[in-house]
UniProtKB/TrEMBL annotation:
Natural source organism: Staphylothermus marinus
Function: Catalyzes the reductive methylation of 2'-deoxyuridine-5'-monophosphate (dUMP) to 2'-deoxythymidine-5'-monophosphate (dTMP) while utilizing 5,10-methylenetetrahydrofolate (mTHF) as the methyl donor, and NADPH and FADH(2) as the reductant.
Family: Belongs to the thymidylate synthase ThyX family.
Oligomer status and interactors: Homotetramer.
Protein name stated in the entry: Flavin-dependent thymidylate synthase
Pathway of action: Pyrimidine metabolism; dTTP biosynthesis
């Protein structure tokens, strides 16, 4: 059930040789050789050496020679935060033209109640949706049954689940009922949507380069100060990136990590800090967490707010 109540992140595509290209771009600033010649001479050891050097010196412009595309399903609350990161490209599911997630909620209710939903393929079947929603809402509903249905269309805050706040879920369901009631009375999508809560699901296609990920998105959003939903999204994106390009993204994390890497004598992976194989040298992080508490702060920030799993723990990848 947790897979439905929380955001979903998928990596669609990426520039496969980003690490080599970034390292070569860095080296091209100090050699007269052409870039294609530098690339052809680069081995894995050279790539790792140059990436570490660029990270340590904060020379981040070469990181722009990269591309990562993600598909993210999240709430409207989170999507509004994500699009504030300006050095990126976004395409979002239109709430004006699509009620995809809300219709899926109605379909799930019809399945749960064994109701034959007539003309399921007709997305303008609003009166039938209202009838089904009304019948379901008049039943004696348990929290789990309601959660099972409502999570089809909404991101559910972890606190609502842990406290079993059935009133919250009923209000979400009621908003869907009123939404389709308005549509059945002739109101347009673009007007009826104003009644929907901000936790309604949406879908984003996001394109970022490594510099935006390294310097802005991940440092800000993996931090314990970030809001829980976008923090979860950031940690999942980080896990995807470490799996595909560990030589590049193992070294990034919350802002405290990026800052420490620029002043430390050793270039350390995030997990080396968290396993205490490396020690932070900064006295305190930008959020005023003192040195000795930074590791625990990051670990707590990495916790899945729904399951409690520590997201920084991933299979060790060699590079």
């Amino acid at each position: 059930m947790y897979s439905l109540v929380k955001p979903f992140v998928k990596i669609i595509t990426y520039l496969n040789n980003s690490s080599t290209l970034i390292a070569s771009a860095g080296k091209s600033t100090i050699t007269p050789k052409l870039v294609d010649s530098i690339i052809s001479e680069m081995n894995l050891e050279d790539v790792n050496k140059w990436l570490k050097e660029l990270i340590r010196k904060g020379h981040s412009s070469p990181f722009e020679h990269s591309l990562y595309v993600f598909e993210v399903t999240c709430s409207r609350v989170a999507s509004h935060q994500i699009v504030r990161h300006r050095i990126a490209s976004y395409t979002q599911l239109s709430q004006r033209y699509s009620d995809k997630y809300l219709r899926k909620l109605v379909y799930k209710i019809s399945d749960v109640m064994n109701i034959d939903l007539k003309n399921r393929g007709n997305k303008n079947n609003y009166e039938e949706y209202v009838r089904i929603l009304s019948k379901f809402m008049n039943e004696e509903l348990s929290f789990n049954k309601l959660l099972y249905v409502v999570s089809e269309a909404f991101i559910i805050p972890p606190l609502i689940i842990s406290t079993k706040d059935i009133v919250f879920l009923k209000n979400l369901l009621n908003s869907v009922y009123n939404y389709y009631l308005l549509l059945s009375r002739g109101l347009s999508y673009e007007d009826a949507r104003y009644i929907l809560p901000q936790c309604v699901k949406t879908r984003l296609l996001i394109t970022m380069n490594a510099r935006e990920l390294y310097e802005n998105f991940l440092p800000l959003r993996m931090c314990s100060r970030a809001q829980w939903e976008i923090r979860y999204i950031a940690w999942i994106i980080w896990r995807h990136l470490v799996n595909i390009q560990p030589e590049l993204f193992s070294y990034t994390g919350p802002r405290c990590v990026n800052i420490d890497l620029k002043v430390s004598n050793k270039t350390c992976c995030l997990n080396e800090y968290l396993n205490r194989d490396c020690r932070f040298t900064i006295e305190r992080c930008p959020e005023s967490i003192v040195n000795e508490n930074i590791v625990n702060c990051i670990k707590n920030a990495s916790r899945d707010p729904w399951s409690g799993e520590y997201l920084y723990i991933i299979s060790r990848v060699s590079f």
